[in-house]
Structure formats: C-alpha cells, structure tokens
Structure prediction request, 441 residues.
Amino acid sequence: MYQLGELGGPNVQVDWASGDYKVNDYFGFRAGKVKTALGLFNDSQDVDAIFLWILLPQSVYPADNKSFLLAHLGGEVYGELPLGDRGGKLLYRGFAGESILDSNGGYVQQLAEDGLTFATPPQGKTYGGDLRWQAPLRGLTVGASAVVQALSGTASVGTLQIPSLLVTSPYAQFERGKFYVAGEYRRTPANAVLAIGPEVIPLPEDQRSWFVMGSYRITERFQAGSYYSHYVNKALDTALPANYSKDWVVSGRYDFNAYFYGKIEGHFLHGTGLGYYESTNPNGLRPNSNMLAAKIGFTF
Amino acid sequence: MSKTRCLILLLGFMSVWSAARAQDVVLVANKGVQISAISPADLRAIFLGAKTRFADGFHALPVVLRGGPAQEVFLKNYLGESPQEFRLRWQKAVFTGQGAMPKTCDSEAALIEYVAATPGAIGYVSRISPQDNVKTLVPYK
Prediction:
C-alpha cells in the first residue's frame, strides 16, 4: 500500500515474498515473488533506511514505476565464485518469471491518459541476470545486469504490445570508510505499440540513462552527498524537453538515533521527460523546475 | 619516591592496562566447531552474510551483541565497519530477501550462553568475560 501523489492506492500489495534454499556458498535458489536483480539498487530501492537519498536517480530508478520494476513472479538462482586471494570474487544471479504492471503505478496512469484503461493490468515474461565482481580492492564492485522483458495487455478499447526488449545496465561502486561513489548506465530500447480502435500508435523509445553519485559521512550522524541523473530518449527529438531529463541533486541525512532519521534533498531539474503526468499538469509544463524534498523515516 | 606517588603510578598503569585489554575482543565459538583459527576474510564474510560455512565446511552461525564497547571494537577491528554501516548492510540484505539478521544478544553472558548451546555459532566477547563453555578461535593473517 502506498500513495505517491495521484499514484498508489488503498489496496495492499505484496512487494516480495519468497522461499530460499542455499545449497552452499556457490549455489542457492529462491522462488515466489522475487526481487529483480537489475543494476546497483533495483532490488533495494524500496528500502529507504539504507539510502542517503530521498529519491534515487530517477533516470534509472523511477519512483512512479517502482513497484513494477521491483520484483517478478518466478525464481532465481544465485551464488558466488571465489577467484582466489588476489582475484576477489564473482557474484551471480539469474532469474526468470512474469512481471505485472502495478495497476496503481505510473505506466498504467500514462496508458490511461493515452486512452487505454485495463481491467487486468498488462503483464509479460521476463528473464535475465546480474554478474558482479567484488574486486580484491575492498569496497570496489563492478558489474552488469541484463533483463529481457515483454509486456502485453488488452483493454476494452484497444491493446498494448511491447515485444521482448533487452535492458542492459553496467555499473560500478566504491565504498571505503566514510566515502561512497557509484555510477550506472542503463539502456532501454522499446518498441511499444498501442492499438486504440482502428488506430495503431507506435511509441518508439531508446532510453539512455545514467547517473554518478558520491557521498561522505561527515559525522557519525550526518551524511551529505550529491548526484547527477541523466535521461534522454534517443528515438525522438532530443532537443525537446519532453524527451530528456537532467537532474542535479544535493542531499543530506541526519540519524537522530539508531531508529529515526531525517533527510532533506534539493533537485534542479532540466527537461520534463520523467515523472510528469498530464492529469496533474493540465496547464502544460515548463522545461525547468526545482524541487525541495524532506522526509522523516523510522526503521527497526 | 613516596608511597602515595607509587600508588598513583600503579593505579594509573593498571587503568591503562585495563583499557588496552578492553580494546580487544575474543572470538568464541560453539565447542562443536572443528576449526581453532579463522582468517580475517572468512570472519568478515561470515559476519556480513556472504559465507555460511567455516573453512572446513561446517555450518557457521554468526551471533552479535546489540551494542557496547566489545561490539564497536569487533566491528571496527575485524569487519572495518561502524555499527551504523553494519546495521544498514544487514537491513539491505533482510529487506531484499537475501539474508536473515544474525542472532543478536543483549549481553555478553547471553551471547556466551547462546554460542555454547548452538552448533556452529560464532561470536565475540570482551576478554574479561568468562569463556568456559565455549571454544576460543584465533584470528590469523
């Protein structure tokens, strides 16, 4: 259950629930509604307490579609392969299953604005994997994820079809003591087709997204950091603000104690390619905007 | 040197010695654990959830203290993390479905009791805690 502006609703959803059997350190498997391994943060993006940020880089981890990307129904194998004292180790995850659009999420909202309202949310098969190398240099992780995803749905007045698309996402992070730096790139080429009555509407997309971030723990209780998040749809006119989003962010977090924390975050946005909806912006959009966000959290 | 100055020096020396002793911890394990020494890499991997077995293949079950000097010393000296970093790391594992939080004990006596009764358990206590019912492990480079 969540509410994010107009998105979300009162219905209770299961974020994830899985059974897990670890045969040994090299191999294990889990099944159920399993969190999807994609990039640095996809499977942990709902765990607010572990992040400095209020919003993760929206180019790669859009909050309005978080629940769709977070997990899939199916299974996963995982394990690690030691590469010797000087080689670090490899961690792998491979998965397959079915993904279902969140009926209260951003994609469904967008489709409703396009004229398609679904009684049953669109869904499709997904499979992929993640391979990450924990280098012998402690704190350094380099990896890449790849996910194949298809989606289809039938509404009363039309259909949505997205043939299998390949999402790729290389990344790296380094954490040592009070320092943390990370970066990730994601490419999502999609050829969605909407059919509304006799009209067929192609929606070509070639999303190129990336971010770089860094943070420093100034005191035991206070942490500060910044990131730059970049999104552009290369399939369309990249000069139009509707087809890109560039977000400069500064953030601070204060831990009052082991359980309570507060966050504050400033966003300096250029472009309207991410996170805006016609229903909440009936008078149109300005190309640039700023946002100040604050949050209090509790964890135990 | 007067007796008073000698006494003050002695008390001062004892105080520094006690503080230095308190700065270190002893690794303890269930008596059924076969190994008697453990590498820093294995220790770190076990307490961070990356490894579930000792070097000899037996199941390892990490046990931690809820807080206190021994907890801070262990995390800093053996895992290279602050209590906050350790907690956040485990929260991430728990909330992504990739691990279960280690057993946490409120006191060193409770930790010793749990380790003594649980096969595969490994923990740590300050040097001043009695370790009669458990096995001590030596860290090696």
The two ends of chain B are 45 Å apart (CA to CA).
